[in-house]
Amino acid sequence: MAEALISLLVEQLGSVVYHHTDRGVKLVLNAEKDVEKFSRTLKQIQYVLQDAEKKQVSDPSVRDWLDQLKDVSYKMNDVLDAWNTEIGKRQASDEGKVRFSFPAYCICLPHFRELTRRYEIGSTINDLNEELDQIYIDKNKYSLQSTMPAAVNVEPLPITSSFVDISTIFGRQDEKDRLTVDHSPPMLLAESLNHKDSE
After folding, report:
1. CA nearest neighbour of 73 among 132, 160, 136, 137
2. CA-to-CA distance for 53 and 109, rounded, in angstroms?
3. Any long-range contacts for 17-25 (C-beta under 8 Å, 24+ apart)?
4. Distance between alpha carbon 46 and the CA centroid of its chain, in Å?
5. pLDDT by residue (tens digit) across 82-91?
6. Minimal CA–CA distance to 20: which of 28, 62, 184, 92?
7. Under the phi-then-psi rule, with left for phi > 0, alpha for psi from -120 to 50, and beta for the rest, what region is 42?
8. Entry pTM
């Protein structure tokens, strides 16, 4: 269950950061960075979740650790919902604004509330980051095994080029001479056929 929740949350985090940054909508200072950090830490924890799910049956401390992780994940999900709501409200109010002449004190109050709400969301994201960092550190207490895919050894591809290296041509002296005469550019097939016809 925790694995599905974490996977969904990681996907949501990436989506939220991408969409809000892409639109240039800023909620609070450093919120995008904090969400990205949360997402990176969550991905690292994701690698040990399979082992933790198995061990929770016999080890109550691992079960408590998973419960803490779920709680933080649910809280972050709630914060993301609040963030999306605030941005939706802001966009709706920006689109539907009608300019009226109001006294300055009438205009300041809604903006103050909006700024306060943004600060609360940013502060909560920061607090959740700290909680998740502690959960990440605590995972080492339980000797959880990582299920991260092992690095695959990939053999390097051979170097290829369309240019002819004269020093690497062996045999077939006639073809070599034709390709390297006065270091002229290599002939195309059609040019080569025309060259044979003219001889």
Report:
1. 132
2. 49
3. 20/83, 20/87, 25/87, 25/90, 25/91
4. 14
5. 888 877 887 7
6. 28
7. alpha
8. 0.61
